[in-house]
Amino acid sequence: MIQLKGRQAGSLKCVVPADMSERQMFEGFSSLLSTGSHLLAGSEIEIDLQTRRFSPALLLKIWKTFIEPSGCAVTLWSVSDPQSREYLERMGFRTSAGEYTAERPEKKEARREEAGDGIYPGFVYFGTLRGGQNIGHAGDVVIIGNVNQGAEVTAKGNVTVIGRLNGLVHAGCGGSDEMTVVTRSLEAGQVRIGTKVGIIDRDSLFWGKPVTIRILENEVLVAPWPVL
After folding, report:
1. Domain spanning 120-224: which CATH class is it, in words?
2. Per residue in 86-113, pLDDT tens?
3. Alpha-carbon gap, residue 177 to 125, rounded angstroms
4. Among 3.40.50.150, 3.30.750.24, 3.10.620.30, 3.90.1860.10, what is the CATH number of 3-103?
């Protein structure tokens, strides 16, 4: 059974037992929407997935069937599985290993250094950015929708587009070449990361595909990403 715990006014924790099947999990989310909608709407929530392993596709399904209709804002994902946590972090979400594993000291130190450099919490935008619309943020940005031609997204952190990327994206706009761009469908002729510009041809094998884009040895590297 999924548990919804009140931590303080407007702050909740949703605990999803790791031994629940996927079907049981979504039945539990449906039950929460019908019985706890008055608590969820407008609240900040931590989602604790415990030791569950999951894919980006499952994350998107959770978002569409529970988080978006509930009207809550997810402030933290607690998950101990390293690969699942990496998926979340690459998409720009704030994560924790929760009570199940200890975070490596060097990673904690990296987080402190990042915060000291002025990296802000992630920003999530629901909807499609149309030509002429712009989003700029001093942290990670996640777009749940498309970025159309003529639209622009600039972020000091990583950029994730769970949709078509047809506009301009600049991750690491503060000058960092260590950021990543992730998209469900790459349909943009260029992507900027830090001080580098990647040019993508329409004949590329990656055109229209889910990809990650990052800088490796001073070169822009495009690689496949798990299908969303």
Report:
1. mainly beta
2. 878 777 778 887 554 434 444 444 444 4
3. 24
4. 3.30.750.24
